[in-house]
Amino acid sequence: MVRWLRILMAVSLAMMLSMGSALAAKPVVYLQPICTYDNSINNIHLDEADRRQLDSMIKAKLHKMASDDDLPYELREITSVGHHSSDEHLVEEDKIFLYPTVMVSASIDTANNNTMDTAYTSTVIAGISLVFCMPEENLDINRVGSEGNTVSLRLLGIVPMAEAETIGIPTYDSQKNVWRNLRKEPISHEEKERKVVSMVRQMLKEDISFSNIRSNLRDDKAKLGMETYQVVNVGMTSQIAQDMFPGREAEELKFLVGYCYTAAYQKKTKRVVYPPAVGSNALTDKMVDAAYKISLDSINGRVDVAMSNPKHPIKLNISGMASDTVESGDDIYTFLHKVWLAKSPVEGEEKAELSRLSERTVKLPPGTSTDYDDKMIYSALLMGLAQELGSQKS
Prior knowledge:
Layout: H1 2-24, E1 28-31, E2 35-37, H2 48-67, E3 74-77, E4 96-114, E5 118-135, E6 151-167, E7 171-173, E8 178-180, H3 189-204, H4 214-218, E9 228-235, H5 239-244, H6 247-269, E10 272-273, H7 282-285, E11 291-298, E12 301-308, E13 312-327, E14 332-344, E15 353-363, E16 370-371, H8 374-391
Parallel strand pairs: 1-3, 1-4, 2-4, 6-12, 9-10, 9-13
Antiparallel strand pairs: 2-11, 4-5, 4-16, 5-6, 7-8, 11-12, 13-14, 14-15
């Protein structure tokens, strides 16, 4: 009897060790060179030096996380040559690829005029997404060659990051009656590029969570029926907004609002959130058979990433804009701008609509005046409010 108990215990221990080993095994993810998402929003062109710098920064961050055992997957790196070499096993259907992608590199440029000086500013927006995908079942690997033929991939999930900063905000010295830090020339393209790189470096210093796609990475077949979320529409019912942002300007603002919301919402919920399907971009132009495709530009050629309609669509609405000027005596003026942004459906204890206020107080001596660029102020307010709306407690 004792002998059989010992045998049974030994077998059970072996099974437990085997199960533990299986659970500990991490899926393999192949890191690709950096891509860019080409759309009308991205008016800051990143040259090859910028791309290489961003590529190195992202790789360094991921390899550091791997060495610290902070990744839910085993990271392997694919070079620009290796992906399109004769090693066709790299594009077999059970492989998982990670494409770091520049989703947003844009600026909103303004000239704030007054009777004393003209101040130029530029609000720079940077958005990076870590895009995880698998080859489609119908992928013809014979079409993948050094010429850069399109690779068709299926989206498993993204980890989006977004940040915005304004270059050239002046301050008024009331004691000496002068403006400080005035930028009297338009912000150069080179300075905007440097700001994008700096902002990405700062974003990468933060904690990056992959919990939203952990289960999808372990499922080798990763069915399209997974729980997915996506901003599918950004409305603009505010009449002031409609008048101020006509045509393409409205579509670009909607995409920026949708992406800022997406980054904050994914960070809060850890869910699989698709890139926003709003605005004048390639995503909305390529909706076919209840599925979306976005095209990414990589050093290895174009990459098409497919995704099904989200199970949980999210709608945003720019529901209000307002401005006012308040005079408080002694030539002191306060300029007020306010925006409202709504979301549906509402989850849990979320508020359906939030607002954000901007106040700028200046002293204007008699005979002087100032003229702020309302578009820039409203755009910056909306992007910040979109992040607040996406990160609120549910």
